Fold these 2 entries.
Entry 1:
Amino acid sequence: MNEQSPLAGKKVVVTGGAGFIGSHLCEELTQLGAEVVSVDDYSAGHARNLEFLAGRPNFRAVRADICDRAAMTPVIAGADVIFHNAASKKNVCLIDPQKDLRVNGGGTLNLLELAREHRVRKFVHASTGSVYGEPVVLPTDEEHPLRPVSYYGVSKLAGERYVDVFHRLYGMDTTILRYFHVYGPRQESNEFGGVVSIFLRNILEGKPLAIFGHGHQERSFTWVKDLVRANLAAATRPESAGRVYNAASGIRVTILELAERMKAMMDADVPIVHQAPLVGDIMHFDVSNERIRRELGIAFERDFWGTLQRSLEEFVGHLRGAVLR
Ligand SMILES: NC(=O)c1ccc[n+]([C@@H]2O[C@H](COP(=O)([O-])OP(=O)(O)OC[C@H]3O[C@@H](n4cnc5c(N)ncnc54)[C@H](O)[C@@H]3O)[C@@H](O)[C@H]2O)c1
């Protein structure tokens, strides 16, 4: 237990705790000595993502839908901080826009109402770079127009707007973090997962690496542990009240480059195949993280290839665990 952390001994709720990013938050918060409650409906998350925390006296996992007010009330009561990471993000196939809105808009509103009712001190909200849509100004900073081009992006923007309204109307201490292309162990490797995990899985299974279109589309890959630090800073730094931040590394890597470098890194002999381009696929990412660096002092990992190489073993371990079950 780290008695130095201002979160030690505090009740913190991580929604989406059994998901990729939520599980990393639960891990760090438990380590810091917070009383951590993970909430997840396991629609996309997995109990195995939290297995290693079982038995820790300051950690518990609750199965609940964030839209379910009755189920969420005892979870939120007495909480000091909510890290809201639960989301419906089956955006890849645009398969269920109603669900995206119900969870990402309605679920967020539900949590905000409960947070207000129970006087929760801080609400840290996970948003996404998808709220910007196709960038019209590069580098994209937080003042960029918000014109999402996916159901997911629209529903996440609805969530953000509710957060902002609660800050403005009731003075709730909120912070919005817009994540971009997060990578790290425990990321989903199915079609809803991230491209790094998908390529890794395909390489391990000896399958081709499929690229939509020419592969020159850029992504701003961000190391999951940096996001954990951004969340902790948002929860504890007074300057973050009412602020929105791009939580992105700012690096730019093309998908083709990723495929080629990952093949080389793993000495893999799998082909790269090009498929039809995705409708609405965003080509250029050049994300400004100046505000979060300046105001919250977050230094993002910029050695993408080195971090990937160093964490490969952990990545592979989790992937094998996930795929073999
Ligand atoms: N991974 C990324 O690159 C990325 C990029 C931008 C934004 N985000 C945002 O970060 C957050 C976490 O994403 P992730 O990548 O860890 O995704 P994830 O799918 O791994 O985690 C989300 C979790 O939310 C849970 N969940 C979904 N609906 C729920 C509901 N109604 N009630 C309770 N739990 C529910 C899922 O079961 C899952 O465990 C999300 O808000 C997402 O929009 C992620």
Entry 2:
Amino acid sequence: MVVALILVLVAVGSVAFHLLSPWWWTPIASNWSYIDHTIIITFWITGVVFVAIILFMAYCVFRYRYRKDRRAEYEPENKKMEWWLTGLTSVGVAAMLAPGLFVWNQFVSVPEDAAKIEVVGEQWQWSFRYPGKDGVLGTTDPRNITPENPFGLNPNDPKGQDDVLVQGPEARLPLDKPVKVLLRAKDVLHDFYVPQFRAKMDLVPGMITYFWITPTRTGTFDVLCAELCGLGHHVMRGKVVVEPESEFQAWLQEQPTFAQSLARAGTGTPDINLASSEGGSEPLERLLK
Ligand SMILES: [Cu+2]
């Protein structure tokens, strides 16, 4: 009797915890409510099955409890029941997987008018690139990566000259505008994850992955790396600020383009003769003394 009661309590407690726990999702900030729907479908299916099985166990423990004058029957096979269980399990699993396939198809079917942002991951930081005035991201090659050209842009590609580079961990996106997020890794696997967007995607070295999103709410949202990528994985954080189009454009204007950052870095041959260099390297000279 006690065991049966405990089992009933486990079922009731689990449902109550699910409904009352404070660790529910953060409010959504994108168009991907479909993702939430698929999770809710999964919760319903697994929840109903969980409660049914636990209650059935409680019933059996109580109903068929030990009595001196009663003997268990031995029935190792029951074809009819096996068919039923196999059938119901298949339907349940299919019902959990099918919505995901539809959502995935939409997740990677980018609308024609989507703007672009590129996310670059490396141990252990994020940086971002916008296509600039021409709307086209310039070509890149890992062989071009230098301290002056951390994005590895092709310096001879005219389409890359106006690309806007954001080296800090904060990206911005305009409100209510679809955007294609292209992802690139410099070293190992990373995963770009913004919980409020209900969107995440792996960054795979040697590959450009993508998804699309329409931010539907202004605010500042955390970017997490969701793929164990080494010692500093837990500090690989960033921010995405969603703001009205006009504010976004004003911010974008202030960020350096590739051409500007190259000009700022000089010709790309660092001056190592500290004694003869002027101005810029003075703090370094002081440090070395
Ligand atoms: Cu990472």
